[in-house]
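Q: What would this chain look like folded?
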Amino acid sequence: MSKTSVEHQHSDTAEVAAGYRSVACKEYPETTIGADYLAEHFISTSHKFLIKFGFVRKLGIVKSRKFTPGGFKYVLARTAFFDQQLLNALGNGAKQLVILGAGFDTRAYRFAEQCSGCKIIELDIASTQNRKKECLLNAGIAIPKNRTFASINFNLESLQDVLREAGYDNAVQTVFLWEGVSMYLQQSAVEATLQFVGACKNTESLLVFDYIATIADSEVDNYYGVKTWRETWARYRQAEPFKFTIDDSQIASYLEGMGLSIKSHLKEREIEERCLPQPGYKNLGRVAGWFRFLTVSPTC
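A: My prediction, written as structure tokens:
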């Protein structure tokens, strides 16, 4: 695998996640985990062809289980969780949607009606955004007029400055989606993002995000799949390493220091119970042991 930085090419993990959602749409179309019917537009032509065949999809799931056990389930559960949190926030009056590190997020299209009265700002590295725009064009999908693309390198640029240029309003009730991003950022970038949300003037605003829990080497065998994940990332994912983790016992005080209070905090077992259709549904199995989902709001 190329070691080229995602600053110069689109994110490989964003395409993998889109591939998982594409497979899920065909394997589990009747469930919330298979709801992303547009994800297929963001994977390669060869992969589009291959996932038409059920036996190929099943082989892909088996391969995922070998190298990233619990990863397929995690991505699908994450899609369902973030979908529901967005819809809940829009139903509760949110008028602004900020997608932080959007990758190949399709919610502005899948939920176009629900988002019609909402300003949407999508942020990501320019290379990934350019790839996304190309895919949208090739698929004949028009970009909604209420949507703004804003390129950013979270590790180097100011979120506040980029959002201000994109027309962000700090006083409007906002839902921030930060999906599959925090673990790839430097700690300083994570904290800058959290502090930015914590400074929102509207305390009804909501940040939805996931993170990786810090697991000590001596405890790694107690968390499903984590040891294999570490080995896989060290060998194959040098271009997108995990940089940020935090201990579960410290997360509440950590967020409080950023001006945020926890609304919900799901660990791996709770993710399985609340976000997957049912335990063991069609051999979905377990979620990798270090992934967590959080919803938080400003306290100021």
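The chain has a mean pLDDT of 92.
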